[in-house]
Amino acid sequence: MSFFISQAHAQAAPAGAPPGGEMFQIGLLVLMFGLFYFIAIRPQRKRQKEHAAMVAALAKGDEVVTSSGILGKVTKIDDDYVVLSVADNVELKFQRVAIHAVLPKGTLKAI
């Protein structure tokens, strides 16, 4: 088999290599993870907590917009579902997590 594969030999470390080079690499990895945490993970968790609090605080009569862009007024609330009145005699049922934002009172009449 050695006919097709050349043999690889380990090389000794150069004599002038600075000691502690491995610690620098580990420190750099820790620094990169810390930077990633503060740039990406932490803000996303904050947005998730704010959305969960907003969904938990929904009440009958709130005017909301769904993640699909449908505007409506909350008429019924279950544990996992919300019924929105979007027009006269038209009610749609959505999951609570599909609510994107709560609008100020009177927004639907202004549109």
TrEMBL record:
UniProt entry tagged with the keyword Protein transport: yes
One Pfam family, short name: YajC
Membrane topology of this protein: Single-pass membrane protein
InterPro entries noted in UniProt: Preprotein_translocase_YajC
UniProt key word Transit peptide: no
Keywords on record: Cell membrane, Membrane, Protein transport, Translocation, Transmembrane, Transmembrane helix, Transport
Residues passing through the membrane, by range: 23-41
Family classification: Belongs to the YajC family.
Protein name stated in the entry: Sec translocon accessory complex subunit YajC
Taxonomic lineage of the native organism: Bacteria, Pseudomonadati, Pseudomonadota, Gammaproteobacteria, Cellvibrionales
